[in-house]
Amino acid sequence: MPELQGVALRSAFGLAPQPVPDRFLVAVSALTLMSDLAADTGLVCLVDNAHWLDQPSADALLFVARRLQAEGIALLFAAREGETHRFTSTGLPE
After folding, report:
1. What pLDDT sits at residue 44?
2. Which of 3, 68, 15, 10 is nearest to 37 (CA)?
3. Fewer Cβ within 10 Å of end Cβ, the chain: N or C?
4. DSSP label at 8?
Protein backbone atom coordinates (compact mmCIF):
# COMPACT_ATOMS: atom_id res chain seq x y z
CA MET A 1 0.00 0.00 0.00
CA PRO A 2 1.35 3.45 -0.80
CA GLU A 3 2.55 5.31 2.31
CA LEU A 4 0.04 8.14 1.94
CA GLN A 5 -2.83 5.64 1.88
CA GLY A 6 -1.44 3.81 4.91
CA VAL A 7 -1.27 7.08 6.85
CA ALA A 8 -4.84 7.90 5.78
CA LEU A 9 -6.19 4.59 7.12
CA ARG A 10 -4.19 4.74 10.34
CA SER A 11 -5.47 8.29 10.92
CA ALA A 12 -9.07 7.32 10.15
CA PHE A 13 -8.86 4.50 12.73
CA GLY A 14 -7.19 6.74 15.31
CA LEU A 15 -3.89 4.85 15.10
CA ALA A 16 -1.83 7.84 13.97
CA PRO A 17 -1.57 11.34 15.39
CA GLN A 18 -2.30 13.02 12.04
CA PRO A 19 -5.74 14.49 11.45
CA VAL A 20 -8.07 12.37 9.32
CA PRO A 21 -7.29 13.21 5.70
CA ASP A 22 -9.67 13.74 2.82
CA ARG A 23 -12.55 11.21 2.87
CA PHE A 24 -11.86 10.28 -0.75
CA LEU A 25 -8.29 9.28 0.16
CA VAL A 26 -9.59 7.12 3.03
CA ALA A 27 -12.05 5.40 0.66
CA VAL A 28 -9.35 4.76 -1.98
CA SER A 29 -7.09 3.42 0.77
CA ALA A 30 -9.81 1.01 1.94
CA LEU A 31 -10.27 -0.20 -1.64
CA THR A 32 -6.51 -0.74 -2.01
CA LEU A 33 -6.35 -2.66 1.29
CA MET A 34 -9.28 -4.92 0.41
CA SER A 35 -7.95 -5.52 -3.11
CA ASP A 36 -4.53 -6.47 -1.75
CA LEU A 37 -6.10 -8.87 0.76
CA ALA A 38 -8.28 -10.45 -1.93
CA ALA A 39 -5.50 -10.87 -4.50
CA ASP A 40 -4.66 -14.51 -3.70
CA THR A 41 -7.78 -16.04 -2.17
CA GLY A 42 -10.67 -13.60 -2.51
CA LEU A 43 -12.40 -11.79 0.33
CA VAL A 44 -15.87 -11.74 1.85
CA CYS A 45 -16.73 -8.71 3.95
CA LEU A 46 -20.02 -8.60 5.87
CA VAL A 47 -21.21 -5.32 7.32
CA ASP A 48 -23.94 -6.22 9.82
CA ASN A 49 -26.25 -3.53 11.19
CA ALA A 50 -25.20 -1.17 8.39
CA HIS A 51 -27.92 1.24 9.50
CA TRP A 52 -25.70 2.08 12.51
CA LEU A 53 -22.69 3.12 10.42
CA ASP A 54 -21.62 6.73 10.75
CA GLN A 55 -21.90 8.58 7.45
CA PRO A 56 -18.15 8.79 6.63
CA SER A 57 -17.78 5.02 7.18
CA ALA A 58 -20.86 4.26 5.08
CA ASP A 59 -19.59 6.56 2.33
CA ALA A 60 -16.17 4.85 2.27
CA LEU A 61 -17.68 1.35 2.16
CA LEU A 62 -20.16 2.30 -0.56
CA PHE A 63 -17.28 3.80 -2.58
CA VAL A 64 -15.49 0.45 -2.30
CA ALA A 65 -18.63 -1.55 -3.12
CA ARG A 66 -19.23 0.39 -6.35
CA ARG A 67 -15.73 -0.50 -7.61
CA LEU A 68 -15.47 -4.25 -7.00
CA GLN A 69 -16.29 -5.63 -10.46
CA ALA A 70 -12.93 -7.40 -11.01
CA GLU A 71 -11.52 -7.58 -7.50
CA GLY A 72 -12.64 -11.00 -6.20
CA ILE A 73 -14.42 -9.37 -3.26
CA ALA A 74 -17.96 -9.88 -2.01
CA LEU A 75 -19.16 -7.00 0.15
CA LEU A 76 -22.51 -7.64 1.85
CA PHE A 77 -24.49 -5.08 3.80
CA ALA A 78 -27.20 -6.11 6.27
CA ALA A 79 -29.60 -3.50 7.65
CA ARG A 80 -32.91 -3.75 9.46
CA GLU A 81 -36.01 -2.17 8.03
CA GLY A 82 -38.03 0.14 10.20
CA GLU A 83 -35.05 1.48 12.18
CA THR A 84 -34.70 5.15 13.05
CA HIS A 85 -31.30 5.18 11.37
CA ARG A 86 -31.37 4.18 7.69
CA PHE A 87 -28.72 2.73 5.41
CA THR A 88 -29.04 3.90 1.83
CA SER A 89 -27.13 1.82 -0.70
CA THR A 90 -27.51 4.14 -3.68
CA GLY A 91 -25.92 2.74 -6.81
CA LEU A 92 -25.74 -0.86 -5.60
CA PRO A 93 -27.89 -3.82 -6.60
CA GLU A 94 -30.43 -4.91 -3.99
Report:
1. 93
2. 68
3. C
4. H
